[in-house]
Amino acid sequence: MSYAKNIADDKGLTGRMFLTGLLLVVLWVVLGAVLVAVGISYLLVIVILVGAMFAQYWFSDRIALYGMGGRLVTEQEAPKLHSMVDRLCSMADMPKPKVAIANTDIPNAFATGRSPKAAVVCVTTGIQGRLEDDELEAVLAHELSHVAHRDVAVMTIASSVGMLAGLLTRMALWSSMFMGDDNNGGGAVAELLIMLVSIVVYALSFVLTRALSRYRELAADRSGAILIGRPSLLASALVKVTGEMSRIPQKDLRKAEAFNAFFFTPAFNGKSGVSLANLFATHPSLEKRLAQLDELSREMGQA
Amino acid sequence: MGLLDILRGRTAPVAPKLDAIFALPSAAVTLETQAGLVTSGHAGVCWRPPAGQASAEVQDEVSKILELDREDPTTPALRAIEDDLGYRWLLVDGAEFDDLATRVHQVNTLLVENGWGPQLLCSVFGLAPAPGADTSAKKMWLVYLFKRGTFYPFCPDGESTRDNEAELRLRTTLGGDLPIEDDLGRWMALWGLPVG
Known about the structure:
The structure holds two protein chains of two kinds.
Chain A: H1 11-38, H2 43-58, H3 60-68, E1 70-72, H4 79-92, E2 98-102, E3 109-113, E4 119-124, H5 125-130, H6 133-148, H7 151-178, H8 185-228, H9 231-245, H10 252-255, H11 260-263, H12 276-280, H13 286-299
Helix pairs in contact in A: 1-8, 2-7, 4-6, 6-8, 6-9, 7-8, 8-9, 8-13, 9-13
Chain B: H1 3-8, H2 24-35, E1 37-47, H3 54-68, E2 79-82, E3 88-93, H4 97-113, E4 120-129, E5 140-145, E6 150-154, H5 164-174
Antiparallel strand pairs in B: 1-3, 1-4, 2-3, 4-5, 5-6
Helix pairs in contact in B: 3-4
């Protein structure tokens, strides 16, 4: 009986992830080409944007901790949590991240940081209270997989194209409102074109980054389940947490940016079979995640 | 982890390194003469058992092989204990580091042969004050990290506190004989060790 050797590569997952990434790169290129063609110097914008992105990436551990109200805990304060993280890291042969606890009843956990060496993994008191120890360990394994996969870097790069488009659109809007009178016809058309392209790029990149995010979640589920050797533990943790989470409004919809309203157009009507909620979700549906874990369990010969 | 793995979002299960454990018997002399420590006669292998019947079968198999060259027939050759984090400890006894290292290696090899290599966490060897040495010395353990192929000393002096000074002293003493883990962040605490 062996399990690690028998687990087949999930070619479908990898393929979809690559396709999403590829489309994002194509978007970058299209956007760059349009900028060059229009011939307007957006150097400053790009410098600022790259700076902001870099700061977000570099300080991601501190930003996320601050956002969640997490507090770093010492080994004396939380010996069991530290032991769980210690052992998982040792089995995965990765450096141990900082460990934090957020004092909130929302059952959640996250891991962030620019590299495995500068990462932090945080659990809420809500998730500690709701899950059994081995389920909590499965959640930690999932989060540590995000760290190992460098998802902060991947998602920062992926979402930057949307940020750039959003910024450019706003600048174009601003300049056409306040300086439009002085412009000749050609300039106005160019600005309109930028705005239009930016809107389209932003919309597409939004959907694509969400898709990428969902694939990365599935990948982290998979690696995490393999690490603890029991996919069923992660599945039961998901059922418990998702059941609780679904009653609590997700933050993601609110923090969506300037063109949030733009998406809720008849173009994405439910009739096509792709539901809006699925298209915009950062996480795959519970059914999809459970199905993957079931499949893993079977491959490991545990079901 | 390479760029390709990052892009694919995957981590390969890490295979354990087994052979560095045989550095232990050669460090026994240094341990006794310079640190005043000898083996406590106990060692253990810690691994994360998967669900299902398979892990019990492997354990039986390990047990049978160890029975063959057991010295003291009154005690079982292998005891298994589940700790409070859901990890299983397979405990073996032996008079010398030689025996212990050999037995621990047998257990490890069998687990790896059955495909559980990625599930191995660490091996632990108990240390005791040498006869005639300072008997007030604290209980210590040498932990072998499978995925790193390195050792580190562990010296708890309370429920969840440890004597770092004693650990660092032992690191200095053994540095020439054993591969000691460089990254202190990986010197994980193992509270409530079932190994004697």
